[in-house]
Amino acid sequence: MKQTVSLKLNREFRRLYQKGKSAVDPFLAVYCRKNRLGFSRLGLTVGTKVGHAVVRNRVRRRLRESYRVHEDRFRPGYDIVVVARGRAAGARYAQLERSLLRLAGKLDLLKGEGEG
Predict the structure, then answer these.
(1) Residue 102 half-sphere exposure, CB side, CA atoms within 13 Å?
(2) Helices (H) and strands (E) in the chain, counts
(3) Residue 84 carries which DSSP code?
(4) Alpha-helix residue ranges (DSSP H) falling in the chain
(5) H-helix or E-strand containing 24?
(6) What pLDDT sits at residue 1?
(7) Under 8 Å between Cβ of 42 and 4
(8) Angle in degrees, CA 78, 59, 107, rounded to 5
(9) Which pTM does this prediction carry?
(10) Which ranges of the chain have pLDDT less than 50?
(11) Distance CA 17, CA 29 (A)
């Protein structure tokens, strides 16, 4: 990840769940909140409802990669938590990628055409 740091502390996840904006679809739920840092922080949550460890790790890797590939399209300065929902286990990479970008667009996390 270029400009993005991992979000790891439990209190930061809880703050996002309580005070952040959210958008959901059948595959993912995305929470975001502006931070006062000059860079974004990404947190991933894949619960046991998604499947056993191998499946959860596969979903986590796919989400991390889809964010990494499109990281330059995201606005800097946000805390973002992506929560995988049950259907994410059977989803292909392209479906997860499309879902992440669609939800980021709903939350106004993507840069506009004129932004650099």
Answers:
(1) 12
(2) 3, 5
(3) E
(4) 10-19, 53-69, 93-106
(5) strand 21-24
(6) 46
(7) yes
(8) 30
(9) 0.90
(10) 1, 114
(11) 11
Q: Which two tokens stand for residue 79?
A: 């805390």
The CA distance from 64 to 114, in Å, is 26
Q: How many Å apart are CA 94 and CA 10, to the nearest integer?
A: 29
Name the residue type at position 80.
I
Q: Which CATH architecture describes the domain 5-106?
A: 2-Layer Sandwich (3.30)
Q: Which two tokens stand for residue 22?
A: 């959210």
Q: Retrieve residue 16's tokens.
A: 């996002």
Among 114, 33, 105, residue whose Cα is nearest residue 70: 105
Residue 38's pLDDT is: 84
1 token code pair: 């990840």
The letter for the amino acid at 16 is L
